[in-house]
Each structure stands twice: as C-alpha cells, then as structure tokens.
Design goal:
The complex is a heterodimer of chains A (487) and B (302).
Chain A lengths: L2 H30 L11 H9 L3 E7 L10 H11 L3 E7 L2 H13 L6 E5 L3 H6 L12 H5 L3 H5 L2 E2 L2 E2 L1 E14 H6 L4 H7 L3 H10 L2 E3 L2 E9 L5 H11 L18 H15 L12 H9 L3 E7 L2 H14 L14 E4 L12 E9 L8 H15 L1 H11 L6 H7 L8 H12 L10 H23 L5 H16 L8
Parallel strand pairs in A: 1-2, 1-3, 8-9
Antiparallel strand pairs in A: 3-11, 4-5, 6-9, 6-10, 6-11, 7-8
Helix pairs in contact in A: 12-20, 16-17, 19-20
Chain B lengths: L1 H15 L1 H30 L2 E2 L6 E2 L3 H8 L1 H32 L4 H16 L2 H11 L7 H8 L11 H13 L4 H12 L3 H9 L4 H12 L1 H16 L3 H6 L11 H11 L3 H26 L6
Helix pairs in contact in B: 1-2, 2-15, 3-15, 4-8, 4-9, 4-12, 4-14, 5-9, 12-15, 14-15
Classes of the chains: A alpha/beta (487), B mainly alpha (302).
C-alpha cells in the first residue's frame, strides 16, 4: 500500500468513526430533552416560557385515531398556533402498530413526548415507571367540567389526573339485521331490555345454518386469537357481577364462583355448535370478514365505528366497487348488548382512550405543564374531538364537542345511537382507587395465567374447572389468601 | 540488555508500521462492536442486578436471577426452545445438504437461479412471511393446510390454536423456509471438494452413496459443524415466529425463551428480570456451543 493510499484510508476510517460518535453524541443530546425538537421542561425554551409565558413547543405522538385524523394534523397545529400564538404543537404521527413501540422506546430513554394518545388502561404501566405528569393543579374547573365525569375518571389514578379522554366507547356486540330477523330475534327489544345468557344462547343457536355436517353460518363469532381472548372474557365477566379485577375492598375478584360459571358458559356456546370450535384462532380481521360475508349472525367485540365500516362496504357493493370485501353481502349493522349472567345487572365494558400527559427526566416547569394541558385539551375537546368522534361514530364526551358537532351530520341508525346510550348508562365505572402495583400484578396474572388458560379452554384442552383452579392458585400466590374473594 | 532493546525496538516498529495501520483500519469495526455489542452486554449485566426505572434504578442483588429460576414459565420456555431446536436444526441441516447436493450438478446459471429462489425467504420481510403462513394455517376449512389434509379425509385442524399442533406448525414453518444461507454455504463447500477425489472413487467403482459417505460428508464436516452451532444459537434466540404467529400460546405451548425475555422487557418493563434471563440464555448457548465444539469438532480441521 502506498503512503498516499494509507493516509487516505486512515482519513476515511477516522471520518466514519467520528460520524458514528457524532451521531451517538447527537442522539444523546436529543434524549436529554424531548424528541423531535421539543423544548421539554429541561429545555431552554421552557425555561423562558416559565418566566414570561414565552414561546414553547409541545410534542404529541398520535396514531390514526379516525380515518381522517392524521390528514388534519397540519390544520390542527395551525389552529392551535392561531389560538395560542406563542405555542407550537408538533405532532409526530405513528401507526397503531408502531405506537406502543415508539412510545415505550421514548419512555425508557427518559424522553417521551409531552402528549401521547393511548388507552386509559396504559396509565398504570407508565405511572409505575414514574413517567406520567399529574396535571391536576394545572387544570381549571371550566376545562375539567367540560368533560363528562365517567370518562374523565378513567384518566385518574389515585388523586392524580394524567390527561384528557378523547372518547368512551362501549364494547358491544354487532348483529346482522336480516339474520336476526330470520332467526326470530326481536333485536329492538334486546337493545332496550338486554338479554340473559340463556336467552342469548337460545338466540344464537337459532342463527346457525348448516349444510349437512358443514356449518355455513355460525350464531356468534368473537375474535379470540392471542390476547383478544382477554376482551371476550372481560366483557362477559363484567356482566357476571365482576365489573373490575378488584372488589371495592381491593380483593381480587376472579376467584369468585361466578367466574367459574362464566367459563362453563364459554364452553357451552362452542359445544352447542353456535360458535366455531376453532374460536381460539380467529382474529379480529377474520371474524369481521366472517360477519361481512354472512358466515356469522352476531360478532364481537362490536364498536360503534363498525356500523360505519359496514355502511361503507354496503356502498361499495352498490357501486360494484372491486374494493368491497370479497364475497361480502350487504349488512345492516345492529348494536346488541352483551348478555348478563347469574341474574347480575348489566355492566358495559368500555374503552376510554385519550391524550395522556408525560414528563421527561427533569421536573416540568409550571408554565410548560400549563401549555401541555392547553394542547391536550385542544385535542380532546371542541372541533377536533367533534370531527374525530363523528368519524368514529363515537359518542361525544365534552360539552364543547357536542356543541361543535351540532352542525355536523352523521349517517347513523337511530336505534343504534339509542342502544349505545343505553349501554353507556351502565358503563363499568373507573377504578382510580386500585393501587398501581396491584393493577400491574393483576395485568401480569392475566397475561401469564388467564389468557393462556383461556386459549386452552377454547381449544377444549382443559375443563372450566381446571382453568378456574389455575387462576385461583395463581391469584392466592400473588395476592395472598386474604387478598382474594372467597364465596 | 541487547536482547531487551531488540524486542523493544521490534514492538515499536510493529506499532508504528503496518501494525498501526491495521489498528486504524479495524477501528470502525471495533468501535461498532464496542458500542452496539460490548456496551449493551456489560450494561445488561449491571441492569440484571437492578429494578430498572428511567428515573433511577434500584439495586436488588440477585433477586432477578432467583425470580427467574423460581418462575415455572421460564423453565417451560426453555423446554419449548429445546424441543423447537431439536425438531428444527437437524432437519434444516439435512434439507439444506440435500438441496445443495441436488443443485451441485446443475449448470451455473441454473444453480444461481435455484440459489436465488431458496435465498428469497431470507430477504423477505418476516412479517409478510408470517401473514402468508397465517393464511396457510387458517383454522377454518378454507385454510390451505386444512384443504390439503381434507384430501386424505383428515379432520379440520386448529393449527395454531391447539397445544398439540401449535409447536408443530412453527416447526413446519421452519422446515419449509429460510434454508437459503445454509444451502449457499453447503454449495460453496461442495465446490471446494477437489475433483480428483471423485475421479479416484470412480476408478474404484464407488457408488453415489459411497462417494457421499466417504468423500462429501467428511469434507463437509467443518461446514456442518459451523451450520450446526450457528443453527442452534439462532434457534435458541428464536422470537419472531412465535411472536407473530401464536403470541406464545395456546397455554404458553409456544412461548420460547426469546419471547419471554421480550415480554418481560417490553410488555412489563421488567428490564432487570429480562436482562437476567438474557444472560442466563447467553450462558446456556455458550455452554451448548462449547459442548458441540468439544465433542463434534474433535477431528475437524479448518
């Protein structure tokens, strides 16, 4: 190698090394503040803001909450800046698939966004990490009172408030109107008065259509693949006198005999032939496909937005559009309640998602905190919330949102609107009193014991009694003999 | 004294001369190794003694290790991983070897075409591949495998949803994909066998199987050992297929140790426990690799 070539190679090697080091160094700098150029509490701009109400940037990590949500980000940022000229709302879009991973990475690096759109059930997880920002002292009464009390309670943990809710959706079931009527089911009565497990069992059995030994249409199909079986079990047990994993005196509830009875009923529906024996492998996409292609009379879980999806597919079928679901039929989507068990009152399972407020490694300044509250409230209320919730067919949960939505038209079945309101009237209440550590233990028990055993139960590999005993043993091991319900 | 001076000046000469250039040239690779391999391993070692939190971790001694060894799910995941390894690695090696032997006599262009075809799954996205496999393993009668077995009158199988078939389904997936790299390595080794050995065997009237047994297999022993060791290591680290196809279910029948570590780290934020488990896994893999080299690599010459 000539002297010249050696020098040149060394310079190149050194340059690459320095680039790598510079990149790491630059990343470290960013991690020290907030991602995406945010001026977090530790940043200089925040310090300025703290002294004079000066310029500040709020970062938000947001998924495609509704179909047009991410398309409106630029306009949302502009509108926010027009309302608060000294503030900039910097939105980082994320897909639903990437959302958790992106957020978790940022949280564990100690530099999360100021606001992230997540489910309220994720609050415990991040609070345990110490990365959530309690905004209680930064929210005035006008802002707080704009929200319905039931959904905003889901954003609380203990005495703290950790963001604002965007919507409160109820986990219901969805039926095909034509098939329900063919099976002689008075769905309007069911929407108003609900149904017991025995009534439900009989109804879905009537919905089964067979061709010889082959089932052409099931009465009921619920997504149960992997962790989705969690939703199935949860919506059922809420209607069996167990609205939460913990009783009001903080004893673990799923050791109750009622839990065992629900497990027995889960098997009954499969053994009846009303649900497929392969239920444990049917994912959310598959069961929706089965619903649209007429392979099931009722599906679950059902969210209000499914009516919108069904309507859109109907329009495509009418227009002979090739993008309609292959083999699909026109479906008039009917919202149905989950049956009740053992004479217990109905208790709707709800999902409350919203704009959760995070903090970085350094304590946020009061001014920056106030600015984050302004941004979170801007996203969760008024025009932004009205447009998003209308796209989702979700009920409005702020007064300002309802007012903004007055001028908007939504093509919804009024019976479904009324049915959702009925379901929301007995929504399971939020449980901010459950300590974070207890909640985390319950989630782990659910992931490591309940869901795996539920999968085995659905596959008919264990009996309901086996699952019940396994859950009970794990619960006693986790919470102690005195920490569980004994009935 | 004179000898010491000579040695000393010799060292200086090496460092100042070509040796110094050598160090300069490997600096980038060394830096990359230090940053992205050595540092994370050392960091994981320290984290394994902590309850990790972004705002300040707490030292917990050997708690994470004792919790790991007391956790029945950890042992179940180790058992699942060993079963998966035993079922996949030898078959994968045999399949790769057989395909390489079949490709070897072909013309160069045809050889390249086959190599490309078999290598394709390696470069394809794992997620995309999983979607295809989920379609193949569709539990309803419309699923491809269910249609296939219905031809012989077998009943519908809940491939990924039943404990009896879930692990086997992942094994089938491993058997039928991702042999590209092994095939290419075997082919390269086969091309390295001198023609004179075959000619001598022909003169002695050796059959195809005799040539395979007495020439090819002994010559390919270093290659086989390399593929076996890397295959076992890869199999112990398997994560993607279980994560995307079964999520570890049903009833943790397909929870591999890699998936368990991922769940502890990224689902429950228990980085300390995950770090402890990953170090235990690393030690296990190192032990198995040493065993393989000691007992299978005795007469291997490189």
């Amino acid at each position: 190698m000539t002297r010249k070539a050696q020098v040149l190679a060394s310079v190149l090697a050194l340059t690459v090394s320095m680039t790598a080091l510079a990149a790491c160094s630059s990343n470290n700098k960013n991690n020290g503040a907030s991602p995406g150029g945010s001026q977090s509490p530790s940043g200089s701009a925040s310090a300025d803001a703290g002294s004079s109400g000066g310029k500040d940037t709020i970062t938000a990590l947001l998924p495609p909450v509704s179909s047009g949500f991410q398309d409106r980000f630029e306009q949302i940022s502009k509108d926010f800046n027009a309302k608060y000229p000294n503030l900039t709302l910097k939105i980082e879009p994320a897909s639903w698939e990437d959302m958790t991973q992106k957020l978790d990475t940022q949280v564990n690096a100690g530099s999360p966004p100021d606001i992230a759109f997540i489910g309220s059930d994720g609050i415990s997880k991040y609070l345990q990490q110490g990365m959530l920002m309690d905004i209680t002292d930064a929210v005035d009464s006008n802002t707080y009172d704009d929200f319905d009390q039931a959904p905003i309670a889901y954003m609380k943990k203990g005495e703290g408030l950790y963001g604002f809710p965007a919507y409160m959706e109820v986990h219901a079931l969805g039926g095909n109107r034509q098939f329900l009527e063919d099976a002689g089911i008075d769905w309007k009565k069911v929407q108003k008065e609900g149904w017991t497990f025995d009534e439900f069992r009989e109804a879905i059995h009537k919905g089964v259509v067979k061709d010889g030994d082959v089932t052409k249409r099931y009465g009921f199909v619920f997504a149960n693949s992997g962790v989705t079986s969690r939703d199935y079990l949860n919506i059922l047990i809420k209607n069996a006198g167990m609205p939460s994993a913990f009783t009001t005196d903080l004893k673990y509830a799923y050791t109750s005999k009622n839990f065992l009875e629900v497990l027995k009923d889960v098997r009954l529906l499969i053994d009846d032939g009303s649900m497929p024996k392969e239920l444990g492998s049917i994912d959310a996409g598959k069961r929706w496909n089965m619903f649209l292609t007429g392979q099931t009379m009722i599906t679950g879980k059902g969210l209000a937005t499914f009516e919108n999806s069904a309507n859109k597919n109907n329009e495509k079928i009418d227009a002979n559009d090739g993008s309609a679901v292959k083999g699909s039929i026109k479906v008039d989507y009917i919202v149905l309640p989950v049956p009740t068990f053992l004479g217990q009152p109905p208790m709707s399972s709800t999902v409350v998602d919203g704009y959760v407020t995070f903090r970085g490694k350094k304590e946020p300044t009061p001014e920056h905190k106030a600015n984050i509250v302004k941004a979170a409230y801007f996203l969760a209320s008024g025009q932004v919330a009205a447009t998003t919730n209308n796209e989702l067919f979700a009920a409005h949960i702020t007064q300002s949102g309802r007012k903004a939505a007055e001028s908007m038209t939504v093509n919804r079945n009024p019976d479904n609107v009324a049915a959702v309101e009925t379901l929301l009237s007995h929504a399971s209440p939020a449980r901010p009193d459950i300590p974070v550590e207890l909640g985390a233990k319950s989630i782990k028990l659910e992931d490591e014991v309940i869901i795996p055993k539920m999968q085995a139960l659905l596959a008919n590999e264990i009996k309901p009694e086996d699952m019940y005993e396994a859950v009970k043993a794990a619960a006693i091991k986790t919470f102690g003999e005195d920490g569980v319900v004994k009935d | 004294m004179a000898i010491t001076q000579t040695v000393s000046s010799g060292k200086k000469r090496r460092i100042r001369g070509d040796g110094a250039w050598g160090y300069a040239f490997i600096a980038v690779a060394l830096l990359g190794y230090a940053l992205f391999t050595a540092y994370p391993v050392i960091s994981a070692f320290f984290i394994s003694f902590q309850e990790y939190k972004p705002l300040g971790s707490e030292y917990v001694g050997f708690d994470n290790y004792s919790a790991t060894f007391r956790d029945p799910l950890f042992w179940k995941s180790i058992r699942n991983t060993i079963v998966y390894t035993i079922l996949t690695v030898p078959v994968a090696l045999a399949l790769s070897f057989a395909i390489a032997i079949l490709i070897l006599p072909l013309k160069k262009r045809l050889q390249t075409t086959f190599k490309a075809i078999y290598y394709l799954p390696v470069v394809a996205s794992g997620v995309a591949m999983s979607v295809v496999w989920l379609w193949i393993f569709d539990p309803l009668p419309a699923g491809i495998f269910n249609r296939l077995i219905s031809i012989v009158g077998a009943p519908n199988q809940n491939w990924l949803g039943a404990s009896g078939t879930a692990m086997f389904s992942l094994v089938i997936m491993a058997w039928l994909s991702s042999h590209g790299a092994s095939i290419i390595i075997y082919l390269a080794a086969l091309l390295g066998v001198d023609e004179s050995y075959y000619e001598a065997a022909d003169l002695d009237g050796a059959t195809f199987l005799q040539k395979l047994w007495h020439i090819v297999i002994p010559f390919l022993k270093p290659t086989t050992l390399f593929l076996l060791v890397t295959g076992v290591i890869g199999s112990f680290q398997v994560f993607q297929n279980a994560y995307l196809m079964t999520g570890g279910g049903p009833d943790n029948a397909t929870t591999m140790v890699g998936l368990l570590i991922f769940n502890n780290a990224f689902k429950y934020f228990e980085y300390g426990k995950a770090a402890a488990q990953s170090l235990v896994l690393a030690l296990l893999i190192a032990g198995i690799s040493m065993f393989q080299f000691k007992f299978l690599g005795k007469d291997v010459e490189y």
